[in-house]
Design a protein that fits this description.
2 helices; 44 strands; 9-stranded antiparallel beta sheet; globular; 47% strand; mainly beta; 390 residues; 16-stranded parallel beta sheet
Protein backbone atom coordinates (compact mmCIF):
# COMPACT_ATOMS: atom_id res chain seq x y z
CA UNK A 1 0.00 0.00 0.00
CA UNK A 2 1.30 3.45 -0.91
CA UNK A 3 2.60 5.74 1.80
CA UNK A 4 0.31 8.68 2.61
CA UNK A 5 2.64 11.62 1.96
CA UNK A 6 2.27 14.99 3.79
CA UNK A 7 3.51 18.38 2.50
CA UNK A 8 4.20 16.99 -0.94
CA UNK A 9 5.45 19.19 -3.79
CA UNK A 10 5.66 17.56 -7.24
CA UNK A 11 6.16 19.60 -10.37
CA UNK A 12 6.87 18.79 -14.05
CA UNK A 13 6.79 15.00 -13.71
CA UNK A 14 5.24 12.28 -15.85
CA UNK A 15 4.58 8.56 -15.99
CA UNK A 16 4.16 6.36 -19.06
CA UNK A 17 4.32 2.93 -17.43
CA UNK A 18 1.61 0.66 -16.05
CA UNK A 19 0.97 0.87 -12.31
CA UNK A 20 -1.04 -1.86 -10.55
CA UNK A 21 -1.95 -2.00 -6.88
CA UNK A 22 -1.83 -5.21 -4.89
CA UNK A 23 -5.00 -6.98 -3.73
CA UNK A 24 -6.93 -5.03 -1.10
CA UNK A 25 -4.56 -2.06 -1.49
CA UNK A 26 -5.62 1.57 -1.56
CA UNK A 27 -4.14 4.77 -2.99
CA UNK A 28 -2.75 3.94 -6.45
CA UNK A 29 -1.67 6.76 -8.79
CA UNK A 30 0.47 7.43 -11.83
CA UNK A 31 2.44 10.19 -10.07
CA UNK A 32 1.63 9.75 -6.37
CA UNK A 33 -0.32 7.23 -4.32
CA UNK A 34 -1.76 9.79 -1.88
CA UNK A 35 -0.83 13.00 -0.12
CA UNK A 36 -2.26 15.02 2.74
CA UNK A 37 -1.03 18.56 2.04
CA UNK A 38 1.00 20.15 -0.71
CA UNK A 39 0.78 20.57 -4.49
CA UNK A 40 1.05 18.54 -7.67
CA UNK A 41 1.39 20.68 -10.79
CA UNK A 42 2.27 20.35 -14.48
CA UNK A 43 2.33 16.54 -14.44
CA UNK A 44 0.82 13.91 -16.70
CA UNK A 45 0.18 10.20 -16.94
CA UNK A 46 -0.27 8.02 -20.04
CA UNK A 47 0.18 4.58 -18.44
CA UNK A 48 -2.58 2.23 -17.36
CA UNK A 49 -3.36 2.61 -13.65
CA UNK A 50 -5.21 -0.28 -12.04
CA UNK A 51 -6.15 -1.45 -8.57
CA UNK A 52 -6.00 -4.97 -7.23
CA UNK A 53 -9.03 -6.85 -5.97
CA UNK A 54 -11.17 -4.66 -3.70
CA UNK A 55 -8.89 -1.65 -4.22
CA UNK A 56 -10.06 1.89 -3.50
CA UNK A 57 -8.81 5.32 -4.62
CA UNK A 58 -7.23 4.90 -8.06
CA UNK A 59 -6.18 7.95 -10.12
CA UNK A 60 -4.16 8.93 -13.15
CA UNK A 61 -2.21 11.51 -11.14
CA UNK A 62 -2.85 10.43 -7.54
CA UNK A 63 -5.06 8.03 -5.62
CA UNK A 64 -6.15 10.49 -2.92
CA UNK A 65 -5.64 14.16 -2.09
CA UNK A 66 -6.43 15.24 1.47
CA UNK A 67 -5.87 18.99 1.70
CA UNK A 68 -3.78 19.49 -1.42
CA UNK A 69 -3.92 21.27 -4.76
CA UNK A 70 -3.65 19.65 -8.18
CA UNK A 71 -3.28 21.99 -11.15
CA UNK A 72 -2.17 21.92 -14.76
CA UNK A 73 -2.20 18.10 -14.94
CA UNK A 74 -3.69 15.64 -17.40
CA UNK A 75 -4.26 11.94 -17.92
CA UNK A 76 -4.40 9.91 -21.14
CA UNK A 77 -4.04 6.46 -19.61
CA UNK A 78 -6.74 3.88 -18.84
CA UNK A 79 -7.87 3.97 -15.21
CA UNK A 80 -9.25 0.65 -13.94
CA UNK A 81 -10.57 1.21 -10.43
CA UNK A 82 -11.88 -2.37 -9.99
CA UNK A 83 -13.85 -1.51 -6.82
CA UNK A 84 -14.56 2.17 -6.05
CA UNK A 85 -13.27 5.78 -6.27
CA UNK A 86 -11.46 5.98 -9.63
CA UNK A 87 -10.70 9.23 -11.45
CA UNK A 88 -8.73 10.41 -14.44
CA UNK A 89 -6.87 12.87 -12.24
CA UNK A 90 -7.55 11.74 -8.64
CA UNK A 91 -9.47 8.85 -7.13
CA UNK A 92 -10.75 10.88 -4.18
CA UNK A 93 -10.36 14.52 -3.19
CA UNK A 94 -11.26 15.74 0.27
CA UNK A 95 -10.55 19.34 1.30
CA UNK A 96 -8.70 19.91 -1.96
CA UNK A 97 -8.60 22.00 -5.11
CA UNK A 98 -8.33 20.68 -8.67
CA UNK A 99 -7.82 23.36 -11.29
CA UNK A 100 -7.00 23.42 -15.02
CA UNK A 101 -6.78 19.65 -15.51
CA UNK A 102 -8.19 17.29 -18.12
CA UNK A 103 -8.72 13.60 -18.81
CA UNK A 104 -8.79 11.71 -22.11
CA UNK A 105 -8.51 8.18 -20.70
CA UNK A 106 -11.20 5.57 -20.09
CA UNK A 107 -12.17 5.34 -16.40
CA UNK A 108 -13.99 2.36 -14.90
CA UNK A 109 -14.98 1.32 -11.37
CA UNK A 110 -17.71 -0.61 -9.62
CA UNK A 111 -18.78 2.60 -7.87
CA UNK A 112 -17.64 6.21 -8.09
CA UNK A 113 -15.96 6.70 -11.50
CA UNK A 114 -15.18 10.21 -12.74
CA UNK A 115 -13.29 11.91 -15.52
CA UNK A 116 -11.52 14.21 -13.04
CA UNK A 117 -12.19 12.55 -9.66
CA UNK A 118 -14.08 9.48 -8.54
CA UNK A 119 -15.42 11.01 -5.33
CA UNK A 120 -14.98 14.43 -3.79
CA UNK A 121 -15.55 16.19 -0.49
CA UNK A 122 -16.57 13.28 1.68
CA UNK A 123 -15.43 14.97 4.89
CA UNK A 124 -18.29 16.67 6.72
CA UNK A 125 -18.23 20.40 6.13
CA UNK A 126 -15.36 20.09 3.66
CA UNK A 127 -14.80 22.90 1.20
CA UNK A 128 -13.25 21.78 -2.05
CA UNK A 129 -13.32 23.09 -5.59
CA UNK A 130 -13.06 21.72 -9.09
CA UNK A 131 -12.64 24.46 -11.67
CA UNK A 132 -11.68 24.79 -15.33
CA UNK A 133 -11.43 21.07 -16.02
CA UNK A 134 -12.71 18.85 -18.82
CA UNK A 135 -13.16 15.23 -19.78
CA UNK A 136 -13.27 13.56 -23.20
CA UNK A 137 -12.81 9.94 -22.03
CA UNK A 138 -15.46 7.25 -21.54
CA UNK A 139 -16.55 6.92 -17.90
CA UNK A 140 -18.29 3.79 -16.59
CA UNK A 141 -19.47 2.62 -13.16
CA UNK A 142 -20.70 -0.95 -13.01
CA UNK A 143 -23.23 -0.03 -10.32
CA UNK A 144 -23.52 3.52 -8.96
CA UNK A 145 -22.18 7.03 -9.56
CA UNK A 146 -20.40 7.82 -12.81
CA UNK A 147 -19.67 11.43 -13.75
CA UNK A 148 -17.87 13.20 -16.55
CA UNK A 149 -16.19 15.43 -13.98
CA UNK A 150 -16.85 13.79 -10.59
CA UNK A 151 -18.58 10.47 -9.99
CA UNK A 152 -19.99 11.09 -6.52
CA UNK A 153 -19.55 14.58 -5.13
CA UNK A 154 -20.40 16.80 -2.23
CA UNK A 155 -17.98 19.41 -3.54
CA UNK A 156 -18.49 22.97 -2.37
CA UNK A 157 -18.14 24.25 -5.93
CA UNK A 158 -17.74 22.93 -9.46
CA UNK A 159 -17.34 25.67 -12.03
CA UNK A 160 -16.18 26.16 -15.61
CA UNK A 161 -16.06 22.44 -16.47
CA UNK A 162 -17.27 20.35 -19.39
CA UNK A 163 -17.50 16.72 -20.49
CA UNK A 164 -17.65 15.27 -23.99
CA UNK A 165 -17.08 11.64 -23.04
CA UNK A 166 -19.80 9.00 -22.78
CA UNK A 167 -20.90 8.40 -19.17
CA UNK A 168 -22.69 5.19 -18.16
CA UNK A 169 -23.82 3.60 -14.87
CA UNK A 170 -26.67 1.46 -13.59
CA UNK A 171 -27.72 4.40 -11.40
CA UNK A 172 -26.67 8.04 -11.02
CA UNK A 173 -25.15 8.64 -14.44
CA UNK A 174 -24.22 12.31 -14.78
CA UNK A 175 -22.23 14.43 -17.20
CA UNK A 176 -20.79 16.68 -14.48
CA UNK A 177 -21.45 15.21 -11.02
CA UNK A 178 -23.92 13.51 -8.73
CA UNK A 179 -24.00 16.13 -6.02
CA UNK A 180 -25.98 16.73 -2.85
CA UNK A 181 -24.51 20.10 -1.89
CA UNK A 182 -22.58 23.02 -3.26
CA UNK A 183 -22.96 24.85 -6.57
CA UNK A 184 -22.43 23.95 -10.19
CA UNK A 185 -21.89 26.95 -12.46
CA UNK A 186 -20.73 27.64 -16.03
CA UNK A 187 -20.63 23.94 -16.87
CA UNK A 188 -21.79 22.06 -19.96
CA UNK A 189 -21.73 18.67 -21.62
CA UNK A 190 -22.14 17.16 -25.06
CA UNK A 191 -25.68 16.20 -25.94
CA UNK A 192 -26.59 12.50 -25.55
CA UNK A 193 -23.43 11.55 -23.63
CA UNK A 194 -25.14 11.22 -20.23
CA UNK A 195 -28.63 10.91 -18.77
CA UNK A 196 -28.32 14.22 -16.91
CA UNK A 197 -25.90 17.00 -16.10
CA UNK A 198 -26.37 17.15 -12.32
CA UNK A 199 -28.71 14.90 -10.31
CA UNK A 200 -29.50 13.88 -6.74
CA UNK A 201 -29.56 17.53 -5.70
CA UNK A 202 -31.13 18.45 -2.37
CA UNK A 203 -29.57 21.91 -2.19
CA UNK A 204 -31.51 24.73 -3.84
CA UNK A 205 -28.21 26.48 -4.60
CA UNK A 206 -26.98 23.59 -6.69
CA UNK A 207 -27.01 24.58 -10.33
CA UNK A 208 -27.08 22.52 -13.49
CA UNK A 209 -25.02 21.90 -16.57
CA UNK A 210 -26.12 23.07 -19.99
CA UNK A 211 -26.53 20.60 -22.82
CA UNK A 212 -24.58 21.71 -25.91
CA UNK A 213 -24.27 20.25 -29.39
CA UNK A 214 -21.13 19.42 -31.34
CA UNK A 215 -21.78 22.51 -33.46
CA UNK A 216 -21.89 24.69 -30.33
CA UNK A 217 -18.57 23.23 -29.21
CA UNK A 218 -17.06 24.00 -32.62
CA UNK A 219 -18.54 27.50 -32.85
CA UNK A 220 -16.99 28.85 -29.65
CA UNK A 221 -20.23 29.01 -27.69
CA UNK A 222 -19.07 26.44 -25.12
CA UNK A 223 -15.83 28.35 -24.51
CA UNK A 224 -17.85 31.52 -23.93
CA UNK A 225 -20.13 29.70 -21.49
CA UNK A 226 -17.24 28.12 -19.57
CA UNK A 227 -15.61 31.53 -19.19
CA UNK A 228 -18.70 32.93 -17.49
CA UNK A 229 -19.67 34.88 -20.63
CA UNK A 230 -16.58 37.05 -20.43
CA UNK A 231 -13.36 37.10 -22.41
CA UNK A 232 -11.73 34.50 -20.21
CA UNK A 233 -8.08 33.90 -19.53
CA UNK A 234 -8.51 30.19 -18.71
CA UNK A 235 -10.53 28.93 -21.67
CA UNK A 236 -9.34 29.52 -25.24
CA UNK A 237 -10.40 28.29 -28.67
CA UNK A 238 -9.15 29.26 -32.09
CA UNK A 239 -12.39 28.85 -33.99
CA UNK A 240 -11.94 26.73 -37.09
CA UNK A 241 -8.81 25.11 -35.65
CA UNK A 242 -9.75 23.91 -32.16
CA UNK A 243 -12.88 21.73 -32.28
CA UNK A 244 -13.54 22.27 -28.57
CA UNK A 245 -12.32 24.66 -25.82
CA UNK A 246 -8.76 24.22 -24.60
CA UNK A 247 -7.11 25.31 -21.39
CA UNK A 248 -4.72 28.23 -21.64
CA UNK A 249 -2.15 26.45 -19.46
CA UNK A 250 -1.77 23.83 -22.23
CA UNK A 251 -2.22 25.99 -25.34
CA UNK A 252 -0.59 29.40 -25.49
CA UNK A 253 -1.26 29.73 -29.23
CA UNK A 254 -5.07 29.52 -29.04
CA UNK A 255 -7.18 32.67 -28.79
CA UNK A 256 -9.87 33.95 -26.41
CA UNK A 257 -13.48 33.82 -27.59
CA UNK A 258 -15.92 36.71 -27.49
CA UNK A 259 -19.61 37.00 -28.28
CA UNK A 260 -20.38 39.43 -31.07
CA UNK A 261 -23.70 41.26 -31.09
CA UNK A 262 -25.57 40.83 -34.35
CA UNK A 263 -27.51 43.75 -35.74
CA UNK A 264 -31.20 43.10 -36.55
CA UNK A 265 -31.05 39.52 -35.27
CA UNK A 266 -31.27 37.89 -31.87
CA UNK A 267 -28.67 35.23 -32.66
CA UNK A 268 -25.03 35.51 -31.66
CA UNK A 269 -21.73 34.91 -33.40
CA UNK A 270 -18.71 33.73 -31.43
CA UNK A 271 -15.38 34.87 -32.75
CA UNK A 272 -11.73 35.44 -32.00
CA UNK A 273 -11.51 39.23 -31.94
CA UNK A 274 -8.16 40.85 -31.40
CA UNK A 275 -9.68 44.29 -30.92
CA UNK A 276 -12.36 45.45 -28.49
CA UNK A 277 -15.40 47.49 -29.43
CA UNK A 278 -16.38 45.46 -32.50
CA UNK A 279 -19.83 44.08 -33.35
CA UNK A 280 -21.05 42.27 -36.45
CA UNK A 281 -23.79 43.57 -38.76
CA UNK A 282 -26.22 40.83 -39.63
CA UNK A 283 -29.29 41.02 -41.86
CA UNK A 284 -30.89 37.82 -40.59
CA UNK A 285 -29.34 35.72 -43.33
CA UNK A 286 -25.69 36.65 -43.73
CA UNK A 287 -22.98 38.76 -42.18
CA UNK A 288 -22.92 42.12 -43.92
CA UNK A 289 -20.36 44.25 -42.15
CA UNK A 290 -18.61 45.30 -38.97
CA UNK A 291 -19.78 48.02 -36.59
CA UNK A 292 -17.12 49.83 -34.61
CA UNK A 293 -17.70 51.43 -31.22
CA UNK A 294 -16.89 55.09 -31.86
CA UNK A 295 -16.02 55.52 -28.20
CA UNK A 296 -13.18 53.06 -28.77
CA UNK A 297 -12.25 53.83 -32.36
CA UNK A 298 -12.74 56.98 -34.35
CA UNK A 299 -13.12 60.64 -33.46
CA UNK A 300 -10.10 61.92 -31.56
CA UNK A 301 -9.27 58.57 -29.99
CA UNK A 302 -6.27 58.11 -32.23
CA UNK A 303 -7.12 54.43 -32.68
CA UNK A 304 -7.53 53.03 -36.18
CA UNK A 305 -8.35 49.62 -37.54
CA UNK A 306 -6.26 49.54 -40.70
CA UNK A 307 -4.70 46.11 -40.79
CA UNK A 308 -6.86 44.72 -37.97
CA UNK A 309 -8.07 41.14 -38.29
CA UNK A 310 -11.03 39.14 -37.03
CA UNK A 311 -11.80 35.41 -37.33
CA UNK A 312 -15.47 34.41 -37.63
CA UNK A 313 -16.32 30.70 -37.71
CA UNK A 314 -12.73 29.91 -38.65
CA UNK A 315 -12.55 32.38 -41.58
CA UNK A 316 -10.09 35.26 -41.40
CA UNK A 317 -11.29 38.74 -42.32
CA UNK A 318 -9.57 42.09 -42.54
CA UNK A 319 -11.36 45.14 -41.16
CA UNK A 320 -11.16 48.59 -42.74
CA UNK A 321 -13.04 51.85 -42.84
CA UNK A 322 -14.69 52.52 -46.20
CA UNK A 323 -15.24 55.63 -48.26
CA UNK A 324 -17.74 56.71 -50.89
CA UNK A 325 -17.22 59.10 -53.83
CA UNK A 326 -19.12 62.40 -54.00
CA UNK A 327 -20.44 63.83 -57.25
CA UNK A 328 -17.44 66.15 -57.45
CA UNK A 329 -15.11 63.15 -57.30
CA UNK A 330 -13.90 63.72 -53.76
CA UNK A 331 -13.85 60.81 -51.36
CA UNK A 332 -15.76 61.09 -48.12
CA UNK A 333 -15.56 58.67 -45.21
CA UNK A 334 -18.86 56.90 -44.66
CA UNK A 335 -18.21 56.47 -40.95
CA UNK A 336 -18.82 52.71 -41.04
CA UNK A 337 -16.47 49.77 -41.41
CA UNK A 338 -16.49 46.76 -43.68
CA UNK A 339 -14.81 43.37 -43.49
CA UNK A 340 -13.13 41.43 -46.25
CA UNK A 341 -12.07 37.84 -46.61
CA UNK A 342 -8.30 37.49 -46.56
CA UNK A 343 -7.76 35.23 -49.57
CA UNK A 344 -4.43 36.54 -50.83
CA UNK A 345 -2.07 39.48 -50.87
CA UNK A 346 -3.95 41.55 -53.43
CA UNK A 347 -7.50 40.23 -53.57
CA UNK A 348 -10.19 40.33 -50.93
CA UNK A 349 -13.92 39.69 -51.06
CA UNK A 350 -16.81 40.38 -48.74
CA UNK A 351 -19.99 42.40 -48.37
CA UNK A 352 -19.49 46.15 -48.68
CA UNK A 353 -20.70 49.22 -50.58
CA UNK A 354 -19.51 50.70 -53.84
CA UNK A 355 -16.62 53.11 -53.64
CA UNK A 356 -12.99 53.22 -52.68
CA UNK A 357 -11.92 51.31 -49.60
CA UNK A 358 -8.71 52.22 -47.85
CA UNK A 359 -6.89 49.60 -45.83
CA UNK A 360 -3.44 48.39 -44.92
CA UNK A 361 -2.49 45.20 -46.76
CA UNK A 362 -0.82 42.64 -44.49
CA UNK A 363 1.91 42.00 -47.07
CA UNK A 364 2.66 45.65 -47.84
CA UNK A 365 3.96 48.56 -45.84
CA UNK A 366 2.00 51.27 -47.64
CA UNK A 367 -1.70 51.97 -47.62
CA UNK A 368 -3.48 50.64 -50.70
CA UNK A 369 -6.94 51.23 -52.11
CA UNK A 370 -9.45 48.51 -52.80
CA UNK A 371 -12.44 49.01 -55.04
CA UNK A 372 -15.79 47.31 -55.18
CA UNK A 373 -16.47 45.94 -58.68
CA UNK A 374 -19.98 44.52 -58.15
CA UNK A 375 -23.20 45.84 -56.64
CA UNK A 376 -24.49 42.40 -55.59
CA UNK A 377 -24.27 40.85 -52.15
CA UNK A 378 -20.87 39.25 -51.54
CA UNK A 379 -18.99 41.99 -53.38
CA UNK A 380 -15.51 41.47 -54.77
CA UNK A 381 -12.77 43.94 -53.92
CA UNK A 382 -9.42 44.24 -55.68
CA UNK A 383 -6.35 46.41 -55.39
CA UNK A 384 -6.51 47.50 -59.04
CA UNK A 385 -7.10 51.27 -59.02
CA UNK A 386 -8.29 51.11 -62.62
CA UNK A 387 -11.27 49.09 -61.45
CA UNK A 388 -12.74 52.01 -59.53
CA UNK A 389 -16.25 52.63 -60.81
CA UNK A 390 -19.24 54.47 -59.50
Amino acid sequence: MATYQPDLIINNCYNTGAVTGSDNSSFVGGICGAFSTGTISSCYNSGKIAGGDSSNYIGGICGMSGYGTISGCYNKGTIDGVYMCAGGICGDVEVSVINSCYNEGTVTAAMGAGGICGTGGNMTGAANYISNCYNTGSICADSYYAGGICGMSVCDKITGCYSKGTVTADSYETAIASTSSGTVTNCCYLKDTAAAGVIDSTDSDTGAAEIVTEAQFNSGYAAWLLSGETEGADWLQTIGTDTYPVLAVFSSSSLPVVELTLKDNSSAVYANVLNSGITVKYDGTALSGILIDTNTYGGNSGKYLEGAYIAIDGTLYQISSFYYTDADGSEEENGDYAFFLVVGETEKSGAAVRGGIITKDSAQSETVYYYVTSESEGLTVSADSAAATE
